Amino acid sequence: MDRLESLLKRIDKFNKDRDWDKFHTPSNLAKSISIEANELLECFQWNDDGYNINEVREELADVMNYCLQMAMVLNLDIIDIMNDKMDKTEMKYPVEKAKGRSTKYTKL
To answer: For the chain, which residues make up each domain, given as ranges?
Structure first.
């Protein structure tokens, strides 16, 4: 079993042991992702350099946990959806136009 599969099983067991699956609707998970993403952003409020890496790790883990749970609830394969998105993004941002630039793809 690979590390991702092991992690997904661990998250699933954690929720099942506590009977929390009933609360993990796509809508609730999307809300939780947004809430946790804002807590991650708070780690950088007022200072781009003086953040606490341990707090960042905790909040990033929370965001990723909810993202993984949403994928599980929707029966989406994490690797497939990430690769599909990378394919689209690579087309939007070809190296020869985007290298070294932060311009949105519609303005390249």
So the answer is: 1-76, 77-108
Q: Is 46 left (phi over 0), alpha (psi -120 to 50) or beta?
A: left
**How far is Cα 51 from Cα 43, in angstroms, rounded to an integer?**
6
Rounded Cα gap, residues 26 and 3, in angstroms: 24
Mind giving me the DSSP string for 39-72? HHHHTTTT-SS---HHHHHHHHHHHHHHHHHHHH
CATH of domain 1-76: 1.10.287.1080
- Residue 81: C-alpha distances to residues 38, 63, 86, 89, 95 (Å): 23, 17, 9, 12, 22
Share of the chain above pLDDT 90, in %: 93
* Residues of the chain predicted below pLDDT 50: none
Q: What is the pTM of this model?
A: 0.90
